[in-house]
Design brief:
Elements (H helix, E strand, L loop, with lengths): L1 H13 L6 H18 L13 E7 L2 E8 L19 H8 L2 E6 L5 E8 L1
Antiparallel strand pairs: 1-2, 2-4, 3-4
Helix pairs in contact: 1-2, 2-3
Length: 117
């Protein structure tokens, strides 16, 4: 997670968009955690599984996309007071102008969020 947050912070600093820094670091952390938790194979049957982070700037908007080899759709679930977790996508939704996901060919998915300066 540290390297993903550092990459986001360095990129936003280079773009002189540090006003997005706190929100983007949180979004990157949540999406990367979900990719590790839900997008990776536990059996190790897929060789060289990779998670990638991309940041794309268009004017005052920055899109963050995390790709992983998993095929399951991200689920915005009701957080339970008795179970840890479940707030990640709620956090992403609250900090972003919009978010979503799309399947990748031949396998995997990209989960993305757009933040506005």
């Amino acid at each position: 997670m540290h390297s993903a947050r550092s990459f986001a912070a360095g990129t936003l600093s280079g773009w002189r968009m540090t006003d997005l820094l706190d929100g983007m670091e949180l979004v990157v952390s949540e999406l990367a955690t979900n990719a590790l938790r839900h997008g990776m194979s536990l059996t190790g049957d897929r060789p060289r599984e990779v998670i990638r982070l991309s940041l794309i700037r268009r004017g005052a908007h920055v899109a963050c996309a995390i790709t992983d080899p998993g095929s399951s759709a991200p689920v915005l679930r009701d957080p339970s007071p008795f179970e840890p977790g479940g707030l990640g996508l709620h956090i992403v939704e609250s900090l972003s102008a919009c978010w979503g996901w799309c399947p990748l060919v031949p396998q995997g998915k990209a989960v993305w969020a757009v933040l506005a300066a």
